[in-house]
Amino acid sequence: MNTFFLEFRDPLFGIIIFFVLIFVITFFSYWFAKFKKKEDYRHLDKFLKQFHTLPSQNELKVLITKGELSEKSWLLLASAYAKNGNYEKSIEIYSELLKVGDKSNYRDTLFLLGKTYFKAGFLERARQIFLEILKNNPRTPQALNYLLLVYEQMRDYSAALEVLEVISELKKEITVESAYINSLLILNDSLMSSDEKVNKLLEIYKKSSHLTYLIFEYIFRVNPKAAWENIDISKAELLVDVLWRCDKKDLNFDIIMQNGYLRELYTAKGYIKEATKSSIFELDVLINLDSKVNATLGFEYICTSCKTAYPFAFSRCSGCHAIDTSMVELSLVKDYHKDFSEENNSFQ
Ligand SMILES: [Zn+2]
Question: How many angstroms separate the Cα of 25 from the Cα of each of 21, 22, 29, 36, 74?
């Protein structure tokens, strides 16, 4: 019977105890490491969670009042929120800073708040903020410029012209701005006839020789004859998309035949055969394809001031607010219109 049990002094007993100890230690250290890892993840998750949720308005109020962060840090944070499109948080920070912040920065913070309201599309609030700045400091050009933009977007062009007058008193050049606002005033006048609008727009164009696109895009739409009679052909490239889409019956071939660029453009379009090549790549390809492939011109509009590209034409860049800085970039695209008309013809 005793042969089944090991003696206490048996060396084998010591070896077994040794291995049992090793097993117990390994087992506990393995589970302890696993538990520690889990705890670390939990801590990290908890830490990262703070950044997924934005502080509420009340939390912000407490944080700003505590004064643990400098006003400059809060301004940087507000500007970062606005850049990411989170205008609501940016507005909350500026509003709280106006209540508790340094009074020497009050006007600057108020201006930043007005700018954010404008970007977020709260035009009436932006207007009130800029008017408040101008009430105490009437010669603040930045606030005047933004107030002009606000009135322009509100389509209150008469008020915009009044702001322009104040800006001109600060010895600022306003020729283009004035021509632009006056053109918008005419284009949006529901009581004026289209002939009257054409005459008034041409008057503005002759005086300023700016806004070729804004003015001639409208005239080509309502009175192509007048457009051809008054167009400055040297600026035809600015209107390439308008000219390209112009109906064949509305074209003035006497003028087209006298100008190399227009001959190339309308040969590429397939209306005439007066050019064999072009220095402009897209036109050259279309001339050589000779309407055998479903290809046409595509247009993209680039602001020459800030280099932002837009898929649509513009007169005032929404990025840098510069006027008349649009440049048309050409590209070759598939002609879906041709596809569509061929499909329709096949049913006849
Ligand atoms: Zn721009």
Answer: 6, 5, 6, 16, 53
Smallest CA-to-CA distance from 87 within 119, 111, 58 is with 119
Q: Which residues surround ligand 1, an ion (CB under 5 A)?
A: 303, 305-306, 317, 319-320
Residue 93 lies in a domain: yes
Q: How confident is the model at residue 99 (pLDDT cuts 50, 70, 90)?
A: confident
- The amino acid occupying position 238 is L
Of 196, 249, 260, 209, the C-alpha closest to 225 is 249
Domains contained in the chain, number: 3
Same structural domain for residues 116 and 63?
A: yes
Domain presence at residue 310: yes
Q: Quote the DSSP letter at residue 280.
A: S
Which residue reads 């837009």 in tokens? 310
Domain region containing 297: 293-348
pTM score of the predicted model: 0.77
Instruction: Decide if 165 is inside a domain.
Output: no
Q: How far is the CA of 265 from the centre of ligand 1 (A)?
A: 28
Task: Return contacts of 271-280, CB within 8 angstroms, 24+ apart.
Answer: 280/330
Looking at 63, 85, 120, the residue that finishes a domain is 120
Percent helix, strand, coil in the chain, to 5, is 70, 5, 25
Same structural domain, 19 and 59? no
